[in-house]
Amino acid sequence: MKLKNFINKKPFFIAGPCSAESEEQVLETARLLKGSVDMFRAGIWKPRTSPNSFEGVGQKGLKWLCNVKKKTGLKVATEVATPKHVELCLKNNIDAIWIGARTTVNPFYVHEIAESLKGVDITVFVKNPIHPELSLWMGALERLNKVGVTRIAAIHRGFYSNEHSTFRNDPKWEVLIRLKEEVHNLPIICDPSHIAGRTSIIEDVSQTAMDLNLDGLMVETHYHPEAALSDSKQQIKPIQFKNMVQNLIVRDSSLRNDIFKDKLLSFRNQIDVLDSKIINILNKRKDIVEEIARFKEKNSLTIFQLERWFEILRTRKENALDLGLDCHMTTEIFEVIHKYSILMQTKLMRK
Ligand code: PEP
Ligand code: MN
């Protein structure tokens, strides 16, 4: 993709309320944030799951954002979901727009938005689709880039999950790492608010984003979070935002001197040796799985045996627990190993 690097400061901070609710709320929140943010956000058209929720103030909110620009000098951003929204934002000199998670999922919508941006040099943020489909997210970014939008950044807001979790939206950081590998020069901003869903873990998610060398944060911030008309549980006060930014540890991604380089190299060498051992062990395991498959075939036994699977899970978890290893990680690893073991046995038996 042909991208212009418009992130002139790292980390780049965007903050502001989930929704613009009144002119006073927008202006006061912006005033309190001034000095600690690079851009102000507020949703005007709100895509809500239920039609009975607050769906945004609509077009009149654009004037309020214009006033934020006038009074604070901050750049302003809002969400768009249709070409009409884009047209109104452009008319009102909004500096940046974002495509929300519920819009990124639909290539028709993204196509229409992209068409309405032909020949326009505006900053566009693209939130990840609700489910962790990297190609869909990349498709949206490419659609915009194809019509000539070059100031593009991705926003990571986590992924919907059916499972009970500490997060409102599962961060699945591994998806981001794959996105970074696919598009090297794409800035990625983390939205810890929609990942966390509650104020108590926003700082922790933000720190993880910094540790992964992401380019910035978009944080929902409201002057009276308790009274917010949308996402009240995850909005923090401007003062809390300021404190959080001060506490964030931003580490260096480049290796500053040779002592660091040597130390890191020695750690990496140790990891390389261990990884190679893991691969060798997996290979040995595979040989035994093949023998088992032949044995099962000869004796007409089913490949999958539920009790054995439960036993594997239980014992490996206990083993991990004894060592202080993460149980969930261990379970996931053995789920993958077991999945491929079953696949391999099925293939062998069919031969
Ligand atoms: C938002 O930023 O307020 C929003 C609606 O986000 P998302 O599209 O990530 O749900
Ligand atoms: Mn929100």
Describe the structure in your own words.
The chain has 351 residues and is of the alpha/beta class. It is built from 13 helices and eight strands. It has helices spanning 23-33, 60-72, 83-91, 101-104, 107-116, 134-146, 173-182, 192-196, 202-211, 238-247, 258-298, 306-323, 327-350; strands spanning 12-16, 39-41, 75-80, 96-99, 123-127, 152-156, 188-190, 216-220. It has an eight-stranded parallel β-barrel, surrounded by five helices. Helix 12 packs antiparallel against helix 13. The longest helix has 41 residues, at 258-298. The protein is elongated. The model has no long low-confidence stretch (mean pLDDT 94). Bound molecules: phosphoenolpyruvate and manganese (II) ion.
List the helices and strands and how they pair.
Elements: E1 12-16, H1 23-33, E2 39-41, H2 60-72, E3 75-80, H3 83-91, E4 96-99, H4 101-104, H5 107-116, E5 123-127, H6 134-146, E6 152-156, H7 173-182, E7 188-190, H8 192-196, H9 202-211, E8 216-220, H10 238-247, H11 258-298, H12 306-323, H13 327-350
Parallel strand pairs: 1-2, 1-8, 2-3, 3-4, 4-5, 5-6, 6-7, 7-8
Bound molecules: phosphoenolpyruvate and manganese (II) ion.
